[in-house]
Every structure is written in C-alpha cells, then in structure tokens.
Amino acid sequence: MTASLNPTFQRRSLDHLVTVLALLTAVCLASASRSHAAADGTEAKVVEAPPTSSANPFYITNRAPLLPGPLLKLPIGSIVPKGWLRHQLELEAQGFTGHLEEISKWCRFETNAWTDPQGQGHSGWEELPYWLKGYGDLGYVLKDETIIAHARKWIDAVLASQGPDGWFGPRSLQTSLEGKPDLWPHMVMCNVLQSFYEFTGDQRVLPLLTKYFRWVNMQQSKNFGAGYWPKVRAGDSLETIYWLYNRTGDTWLLDLAKRIHEHMQDWTSGVHDWHNVNISQGFREPGVYYLQAREDQFLRAAEHNYQTVMGRYGQFPGGGFAGDENCRPGFGDPRQGFETCGIVEFMHSFEMLTKISGNPLWADRCEEIAFNSLPASLTADLKALHYLTCPNQVQDDKNNKSPGIQNRGTMFSYSPFEVYRCCQHNVSHGWPYYAEELWLATGDRGLCASLYAASEVTAKVGEGAKVTVSEETDYPFSDRVTFRISAAQPARFPLYLRLPRWCLEASVKINGKAVPLKAKPIAYAVLDRTWRDGDSITLQLLMRVSVRRWEKNNYSASVDYGPLSFSLKIGERWSRCGGTDAWPEFEVFPTTPWNYGLVLDQKNPAKAFKLVRNPGPLAAQPFAPDAAPLELRARAKKIPAWKQDSLGLVGKLQPSPVKSTTPNDTITLIPMGAARLRVTAFPVIGTGKDAREWKATDQLTEK
Ligand SMILES: [Zn+2]
C-alpha cells in the first residue's frame, strides 16, 4: 500500500481486483506474465493464482463434481513450525490451553456428555469441542506425545459414543431446540475428528462421520434453519461434508450439502446477522458452497460480505472489526472491540478461502489479523486472555464498559477462567491451524509458501519425489525469507511464493543469482525448475513504513510496516485482580501518557517515522513490549482534552486535523500485537484553518 492511500479507493480497487481474479482463475492462467527461462533452466513467472487442477495425485483434491482447488492442505504433520511461531505453540501448551482440563469445568472427563457411551452427563455443548479442536491440533503440529495422548483419550471416548442411529456425543442435543436438534456443537466436534483422521488415518473416523451425516440427512430440511447458532453457522457443516465426500465419494452427501445451504441462514445475498463470531464464520459460506455450485457469484458473495462488514465496522487497523458483541450502527470507533473467538474464526475462514480461491489476498488478511490482533488478545505467556481486543484500548480493567461496548460485565482484564467461557476454549485453534497452513500443495504438483514463518515442510512433488524445504526467516519482523531444498534426487516442480499486497518491490535469488521477475502485489512468484539438493532461494519482500488515513473514522491515521501495524507504546502496570497463584488474573493500567496526535509531514506522511531495529537475535516471544524487535519513533503532540470516559474507555476520536499547543514530543510505537495497551488509530495534529479544538466530553453521554 502507498502512503495516504485512501481506504475507500483501496476497497473499490480491491473489489474490482477480486472480480478480475475470479474470472482469471476460472478461465486459465493465460494472463500470467510471460515466463522467463534462465540459463539454468528456471522458468520464472508471476501469476494471480495457481491453476485449478485435480492433477495432484499425492494429496486429497476435490472430487468431481466439486470444483478442483488451486491449493491443497498438506496432511497435518507435514509442516514443522519453527521460530517465534513454534514458541507461541509451546507457550500455548504451557498456558491455559494446555491445562484446560485442570481449569475448566467443561473439560472434566468424568461423566462428560461428550465421552459417556450413552451421551449422558454434563457439559454437552460447544465448550469441550471448542477446546479439543485446537488442543488436538496443538499436539499434532508440535508432535507433543503427551498432548496427543491426552487428546486421544477424549477422541477415543467420543468415537465410542455413537449409537445405532448414527448420533454420537450428547443425546440431549437431539431435541434441545424446542424438540429439534441443535447441530452446532457437532460442527465443531467434526473438525476435531477431521484433524485426528488427517494426522492418524484412524479407520473409525470416516464410518462414524458417514453414519452421523446419514442421521443428519434424515432430518427435514427446515431443521437446518432451526435455532440461532446452528442456522447461522451451518456453513461449517459444508466444509466437513465436502471433506468427507472427497474421501468416500458418497454422492448423497452433496445432496445434503445443497439442502443445508438452501435452508440455513442466507449469506449469499449479503450480511443479515451482525454477531461478530457469526460473521467471522458465516461470511465465507457462499465461498465454500461455490465448490459445489460452480458459479463465480458465490465466491464473489463471500468477498462482498467481507467488504460490507469491513467497510462499515473495520475502519481501523488490526484486521478485525467492531463487534462487541454485535456490530452496532454508530459504534465503529477504534475503541470498539473484536471478540477473541471472532479473531480465530476469521483466521480460519481466511485460510479456507485461500485454498478455495487461490487468491493470495485471503492469506494477507489472515496474516494481518494473526500478527496484529491475536497476540494482543492473550498475555505474552499465553496464560490468560481477554474477550475484547480494540485498536485503541488504554486500560484493561475488569469493570463494566456497557453501553460504550455492548456487553455488560468484565471484558478487558486478562483471565484464564470461565469469565470468557467461549473464547477460553475456542482460542485453542488459532495458532495450530495457522501453522498447518504455512505451506500448501498446488494442483500442478508443486508447493506454495502461503503464510511466511520459519518452518520445514516435507511433501511429494513433481513425479512423486519427496522433498524437504526449510524456511528460515524472522518474518514479519524481517523482510527476507530464505528457503533451502533437500532432495535425494533432483526433482522438477513449481515453487509458488506469495507476494503480499503491501509489497511493491519483491525480488528473488536462486543460489545467489537474481531471477528476472516482474513482481507485483497480490500475486505469486512461480519458480519452476529441476531443484537439486542444497539449492537455496532468497526472497526479499521490501517493507516500507506507510500511513493509512481512515476517512470514516474522523480521518485518523495509522502506521504500518509491511504486514505489521504499530501502536503507541504505553507503560503498563499489571495488577493482580483474582485467580490463583498458578493462574492469576490481571488488570493492566497505563503509567505513561497516551493522548497523542501524530505530527505528520503533509506531503510524505511516512517520512515522519524512524524505524529502529533492536539489535540481537529475535526474542523467543517477540509479542511483548520490551521484546519488540522493531520500533518506530514518531513526532506527536499531546491533546490534553482527550481523556478516558467515566467507564475507563478511551475517548472516541474526533475529527482530524486537531489543534494542539503543547510542545512536540518524540513517541515510540511498537507492533500492535506486542501492545496490551495501545493507541493504533491516531488523531492527526494540524495547524491550518481546518484544525479543530478537541471538545472535552464524557463519552458515556455520546452515542
Ligand atoms: Zn468467544
């Protein structure tokens, strides 16, 4: 993105771009830039998406009549995450996710309705499957035998709970919606079983899921529109049904998927439900159904839903939107929050749509929210989380913030306990699923580096050779990524490298020699050649400081460097407010001023920022204020009338430019994900006629 790029313009051009991409993908790759064949036989080109093809025999592709996918998930375990991402996973294992059986009453094994052979007992709803969904995958991606064994204890019991009718797990759910079944918790448990199967190949899973969906298939169609959560989220079933169909070929599954699509919440004609987590899951539904419908309008509908939500409620940095609990007209300020469940479900949706469409923009969106919002929703040790993460959030106390935010009660302080019941369990899949999507197979028997992080992938390519690619990088804290090939025999295959939307200059070297390539944002560089053991590829994704202005939020300004958004570094005082010594709860209070407006260079806003790279190796946990690898220095002035309101919320933004007579200060910005207290969308200081006084006001009385 360029400095001062108007978000309205950006959105319109992205809309156009997505339309074009969909057409391109559907037709072929005729528009790919001409490939350059180098002297060493490398064919290098830039494409908007990998070709849709079912010609990859090594991995599960969509079975006809479903549309073939351009990008395919590799079996869980193929990718070994390293670097800071591995450390997040290790911290997650040591944190509350790894110990939820000790902390959460919903994760007590004894007499649990999910594990009882007759499905009788306690906790028969979403919490246990939410937790197990990420907990199992955490074990698989870390290859942590203790976690794998613990998860398996639960999964074995779930698999043994199926009755002759096909239903498994809690029997009460069969009739809990005024006599109709509540199908929602099973959608989550199906994800648990899918991952378990991908990792183990356990022979019990496909028959169990087939029998279960036979039971679902006996339901009257109107039951798919029953209840609130199951009706709105039934798109989650489609993904599981296609997953199962691709493995069994049972065509009745597609008839079932069509009936569910036609009777669930309509997400094809726009957004009609404004609950933040429902949106984060539901918006993608037409994009998933596109595989079966085979019409571009469905893929476009998912993009349109995203644009609708972000255009109204996502007018600030961080990759999320204002939904605390629902989106509310008049509440789009960056002080509004996004639920942690929303963050991880948005990531999951973006991961799915990346594979379905091949459009790298979805991977950009995934990185944006993963780097900027997910880490801030958790304490740096991953031993506690909060419910709502806001781009502007200067105090995390436990007191009620309603009606400033919609939910009453504690939403901001950090806790590992049931005060945040859904998020406490559901956050588990955020980082493990992310780690499973770093690398994808391509329809044309290649490999794609989709989400960049230090890692190692082993996969079959080309004519069936097994290769390992190790990826070394501190990305997103560095703009250089190095890949090394290990292969027993030379193997020809295409290697796809994602070119992010913010990267205006990318370059590639193979074994130290520059590859001629017309790189452009929102595309892939494709390097097709016979790769040999020891080959190395260096990808440089030039990062620049850039400033975004948010017209719909009072012309506020935010600062990015590559995929990272930056926040004011605010001194933090952590104060224990409950919990146990092993699992404490904390409030966080500011110890330094936060009410700054940025002093920008009008002609070149990005020029006002100085990037400081902290020396030494990357900290194991870089998402902490004092370990932040990158800082920005900026000029700013205090706005004395900008205060917290009587609820403790940061005051709403007022129109920029803003007058200030205070002296210039130099402030420090750190990556948003490292800041548990932050201002990320700033007022801009002005001196001209258009500059306004900041009005003193108690925001509580404002709409
Ligand atoms: Zn939640």
State the main characteristics.
703 residues, 7-stranded mixed β-sheet, 7-stranded antiparallel β-sheet, 17 helices, 25 strands, 19% strand, disordered N terminus, binds zinc ion
Pick out the low-confidence regions.
Answer: 1-32
Cα distance spanning the termini: 33 Å
Q: Which strand-content bin applies to the residues?
A: 15-25%
Helicity range: 25-40%
Overall strand count:
25
Alpha carbon gyration radius? 25 Å
- What order do the strands of the largest sheet run in, or round the barrel if closed? 1-2-15-12-8-7-3
Structural class: alpha+beta
What's the number of helices? Answer: 17
The largest pleated sheet is described as: 7 strands, mixed
Query: Which cofactors or ions or other ligands sit in this model?
Result: zinc ion
Q: How would the global form be characterised?
A: globular
The overall average pLDDT, rounded, is 94
